[in-house]
Amino acid sequence: MNQTHKRKILVTGGCGYIGSHTIIDLLDEGYDVFSVDNYSNSSPETLTQIEAVTGQRIVNYEVDLRDRRRLFEVLEKEGRIDGLIHFAALKAVGESVQMPLEYFDNNINGLINVLEAQKKYNIPAHIFSSSCSIYGNADELPVTETTPVKEAESPYARTKQMCEDIIRDFTVPNPDFNFVLLRYFNPAGAHESGLIGESPVNSPANLVPVITETAFGLREQMTVFGTDYDTRDGSCVRDYIHVMDLARAHTLSLRYLMEGKSETSVEIFNVGTGTGVTVLEAIEAFESSTGKKLNYALGPRRPGDVIAVFADNKKARRNLGWNPTRSIRDIMKTAWEWEIQRRKS
Description:
Helix content is 40%, strand content 16%. It is of the alpha/beta class and 345 residues long. The longest helix has 21 residues, at 100-120.
């Protein structure tokens, strides 16, 4: 990187799935990175996995972002910080339906403290981890950044809608801080090295790790939730994006802000492949790319699930120079290689 000092980046939730893969991309690009993660759905082992891929050991502070005093102590110690990427949040749609207050407390109060810290320590650039779930059941597909935000289908989605609004309100009296809100679609897959991937502490609810755990024999059977939706084959449609393609979008977003290219204080980008894949098509992609047959059953709809959503990603391609390069088959292949690797130890 052409810079007089290594730019220092705070990553909240850096030991989580997307955070850890983004740290790898940031380190590859020459950034100085540290993490704040309370290990609520991650593990210190992730730091060793990052080191195995990059050769660099990053520091993580085991701090809950709702603890403002401890967060401020960390940032005081770290000194000048050039940007932050805020991943840390509870993220399981189904769980949020059962535990709404925990989701509001964690996701919203965590963000408020991060914004307070950003202001106090003058961190100019902030990449916020948002979600395609904010669109709800959109009237038109693919969704663009200007697609109207519909009623949230889950408390998780509502927290993302509220967090986006909080950030917009924050910038009104604080216009010198710049934000990119990345609305992810469905991250999946693993780093091509096979040394790091999705390894949630809690039982995964996302489709791809459920598929790989079932194929490995850790689950006797998996369920396809809903087969009577108005889609090609009756199952839900999602836009599955490889985690390293998603990680790259964060690095490019930071660069975009640091180079002063943003036109407003808050910019929004969809980060998806632009291709919708049904649950049954995803299962077929797994079977054909790995040669493993999957034991699955067809079941009823699950509360909180959106019928179909996939991205129009032209804005991210045009403004960020971002381009997803990996297919659903690449996602399944790398996820399966990681599942095998992680079960060896």
